[in-house]
Structures are given as C-alpha cells and as structure tokens.
C-alpha cells in the first residue's frame, strides 16, 4: 500500500487544499499529515507573537479536523529550515512514505528549501502545487513574456484569464477511516500573545462563515466603506489568508456567487481588486527574489540618505508623533495586531516621508506586530508607500497626515477610541488638537507634533531628488 504524506505549511485547511486533495485521490493509499514548526526561523524573520498564537490555534483546529477524517497529524518542532529538511526525511523513512505532497511557498528561502528537499528524498515522489494563488506565477505575463511591473495592466490581464476559465475549488477529502481520538495539545517554543478571538475566525469553519457573510452583505458596499477606519468596512480575512485557513479561490468563488458582476466591474469588484493585488505581489516575488532580500525594486532609491533617529522611530512605533490619525493607527496595531488598510498607507508614508526613516525599518516593525503578517503583501505595501517598488506611488506623492485624518476620520471617532486623551477636543479641532488647545489655554496629555509636515516634505523631496540624480 502506498503511503502519501501531506506537508502542511501556510495552508492550514481541509477545503480547497490542492495538495491534500491530490494525496487523498487514491482510495488505496494511506494518508498522513505533517506540520513542522521552526521557531528559530520565525525569530529570524520577526514573526509577531499574536500571529504565532493564531497559528497555534489553527494548527490545533487543523489537527482536530484531520482526525475526524481519519488522517493523523505528525507534529515536529525544529529550529530552522535546514533542520526541517532532516525532519521531513526522517518522517518519510519512519513511515515508508512513497509520495510527498505540498503546496508551493514563493519566498526565496522556502523555494530553496523545497528544491533541496526534492534532491535529498531520493525514492520519494514529490508533488508541489500552486495553491496560495488563484493563477500560478508565470501564467499572467506581458506579450513579451515578462512579468508585469504595473498593477493595472496586470489586473486587466488577470481578469481576462479569469473570464476565460475560473480556477476550480477542490472539495475537502472524505473520511478515510475511524476518527483519531486522544489528540495532544500542540504548541511550540515561541513567544505567543493573546489576540481578540471575536475579530479573527477561530477555525476553518468560522473563517468560511465569515467569508460568506462578508461577500453577502459587505462586498457590495466595500468600495464606499473600506477607507473609513471607524466603521467595519473590510473583511478582516487577511489573517486567514496569511495562514492559508482560506484560499484565494474560495474568496473568488464566494464573491462571484454573491456578487456575480464583480468580474465586470460591478458590485464587489473593488474587493476583487484587493485579492488581485495580493496575487500581484506574490507573482512579483517569484520573478524578483531580491524583494525577499531587503532590496528595493527601483534601484536608484538605494541612494536615499535615510535618517537614523531612534527617538523619532520610537515615537512612531508607540503612537506618540503628535499626529492623531498616525498615533491612533499605531496604537491599534500595537494593541490588536491588526491595522486598517488605509491607515497602513498613512503610517508608512509618515515614517518614510515625514521622518525620512528607511522603509525597511517600518516593514520589519509591522511584521513583528501583525497577526496577518505576509511577506509579499507587507513588502509590496511598504515599497508602494516608500516609492521604491514596482507600481509605487511617485516619490513626490506625500500624504499629509492631517488632511488624511480629516478625510477618512472626519469627526474623530476612530481617533478618540484609541487616543482617550483627546476625547474632549471638538471634532473640528481633533486633527490639529494643539492649535485648539493653545487658543483655549488648555493643556493636553498628548505630545506635540515631532516634525512639521511642510518642512519634512521639502527635506524628503530633496533627499529623493539627490538619490535619483546620483
């Protein structure tokens, strides 16, 4: 009897899991599952303790779901990817594994690891699958067979492909034997921080239910509501996508089931665009591995003379910059492990273009905090804000944090929630509270602005222009 081993990585689900479905296709094969934690590797890449806790919860949920199907989960903990290779090899030898199934990861180190694994496994047949994307990297290219460097033409080509043929969703496997009982509680030697279970789905079933609800009631209004952090206008499914608790194909099919005009630019199309942005960054990372190596896509931006100022950096990290929308956003991140997407752009722009601090410092800080940390999306977003990446905002486009707050949190509802020291400030003054306080002779328990935006803008433009000329 052949033995099929499914190696779970960032795909912690039963439904629409291509590797799992392939392993279970044969009724005559014995199917085993494997997960290998690598705390040393996570430490190197600053995985957020909240994301580690979220991963642990979903790993245990996956173990229970597999057990109900009669598929035992083998759990290992090793330090890093090198030890991970030895662990997979050992599991294969101990269980007489004939076939190994896994879903591709597109980060540089992960691709290197998988190539080495196929080399050392010898007689074990390895099968990998493009599972974390709707369309495989390399399937959406320019006419000259190059990777797109601008989002809009990529999106247009992507949607054209979807109209020709939607990617299929595969069913969860049928039960293969008796339910496995007496399951151990899985955990790993890595810092974990509690997260709000009411905000993020606790298991695959809850994630699917949240996806259904959002596509039914939220996707059509997404365009009108998504930029306002005081209201629940987003799906909050990014953490599930980062761990693979949901697949992007599930998101696509559920969206089209509820909003059939999304592919034609109708209701739901703006949320579809967000899913395609996610694909864009994954495809880019596959073709430009330097994006995984702290390199900017636009090479001349390597010449920008960044400011080294620990005091300014800490003020930004703690939400003490004196700009209310920036500070409220950073405190939301620090306290919940999540930040509204519009606020990610505002805070990133402030760090890079008001404080002139290297975007890579901000990218790393976000990863250290985010429950939905994802290298491709986080790197893509930071390089967009810093004007260093493909399809980035032009370097002379600099968000004004005050007017951004006025536009997207006009009455200060979001700001007051996270900055209770400003609760008494009237709505008209909430975005520049010290101007009001000084007129009223009031003292606020809130810092004054650490930079003057107009002056900072001039300095940043000069720094970028000097780098471009260099």
Give a quick set of tags describing it:
470 residues; alpha/beta; 20 helices; 48% helix
Flag low-confidence runs: none
**Strand order, sheet with most strands:** 3-2-1-4-5
Largest sheet: 5 strands, parallel
* Number of continuous helical runs: 20
- Please report the distance between the alpha carbons of the first and last residues: 65 Å
Secondary structure class reads: alpha/beta
Write the element-wise H/E pattern from the N-terminal end onward. Answer: EHEHHEHEHEHHHHHHHHHHHHHHH
- Overall 3D shape: globular
Q: Using the CA coordinates, give the radius of gyration.
A: 24 Å
Arithmetic mean pLDDT: 96
Short description:
The protein is α/β, with parallel strands linked by helices and 470 residues long.
Q: Could you describe the 3D structure shown?
A:
The chain is of the alpha/beta class and 470 residues long. The protein has 20 helices and five strands. It has helices at 18-23, 39-44, 49-68, 81-94, 108-120, 151-164, 204-218, 222-225, 238-243, 248-258, 269-287, 310-318, 324-336, 341-354, 359-369, 375-386, 401-408, 413-418, 433-440, 453-469, and strands spanning 3-8, 30-37, 73-77, 99-103, 125-129. A five-stranded parallel sheet has the order 3-2-1-4-5, with helices on both faces. 43% of the residues are buried. The model has no long low-confidence stretch (mean pLDDT 96).
């Amino acid at each position: 009897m052949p033995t099929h081993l499914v190696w779970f990585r960032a795909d912690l689900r039963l439904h629409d899991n291509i590797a799992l479905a392939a392993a279970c296709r044969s009724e005559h094969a014995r199917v085993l599952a494997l997960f290998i934690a690598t705390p040393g590797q996570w430490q190197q890449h600053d995985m957020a303790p909240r994301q580690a806790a979220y991963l642990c919860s979903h790993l245990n949920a996956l173990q229970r779901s597999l057990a109900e199907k009669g598929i035992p989960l083998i759990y290992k903990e090793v330090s890093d990817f090198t030890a991970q290779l030895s662990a997979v090899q050992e599991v294969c030898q101990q269980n007489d594994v004939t076939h190994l199934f896994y879903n591709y990861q597109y980060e540089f180190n992960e691709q290197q690891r998988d190539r080495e694994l196929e080399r050392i496994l010898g007689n074990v047949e390895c099968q990998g699958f493009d599972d974390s994307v709707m369309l495989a990297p390399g399937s959406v290219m320019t006419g000259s067979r190059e990777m797109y460097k601008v989002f809009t033409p990529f999106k247009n080509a992507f949607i054209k492909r979807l109209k020709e043929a939607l990617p299929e969703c595969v069913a969860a496997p049928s039960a293969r034997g008796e339910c496995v009982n007496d399951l151990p509680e899985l955990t790993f030697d890595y810092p974990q921080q509690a997260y709000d279970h009411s905000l993020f789905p606790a298991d695959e079933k809850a994630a699917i239910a949240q996806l259904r609800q959002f596509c039914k009631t939220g996707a059509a209004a997404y365009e009108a509501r998504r930029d306002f952090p005081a209201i629940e206008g987003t799906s909050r499914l990014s953490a599930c996508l980062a761990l693979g608790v949901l697949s992007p194909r599930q998101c696509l099919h559920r969206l089209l089931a509820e909003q059939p005009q999304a592919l034609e630019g109708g209701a739901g199309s703006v949320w579809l665009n967000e899913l395609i942005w996610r694909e864009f960054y994954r495809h880019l990372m596959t073709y430009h591995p330097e994006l995984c190596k702290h390199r900017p896509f636009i090479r001349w931006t390597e010449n920008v003379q960044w400011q080294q100022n620990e005091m300014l950096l800490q003020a930004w990290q703690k939400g003490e910059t004196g700009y209310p929308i920036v500070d409220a956003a950073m405190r939301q991140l620090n306290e919940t492990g999540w930040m509204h997407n519009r606020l990610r752009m505002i805070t990133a722009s402030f760090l890079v273009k008001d404080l002139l601090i290297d975007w890579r410092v901000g990218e790393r800080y976000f990863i250290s905090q985010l429950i939905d940390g994802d290298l491709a999306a986080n790197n893509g977003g930071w390089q967009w804000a810093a004007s260093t990446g493909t399809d980035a905002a032009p370097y002379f486009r600099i968000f004004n944090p005050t007017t951004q707050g006025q536009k997207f949190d006009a009455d200060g509802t979001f700001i007051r929630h996270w900055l209770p020291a400003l609760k008494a400030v009237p709505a008209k003054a909430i975005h520049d509270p010290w101007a009001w306080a000084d007129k009223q002779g009031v003292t606020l328990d809130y810092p004054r602005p650490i930079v003057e935006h107009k002056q900072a803008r001039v300095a940043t433009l000069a720094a970028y222009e000097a780098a471009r000329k260099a």
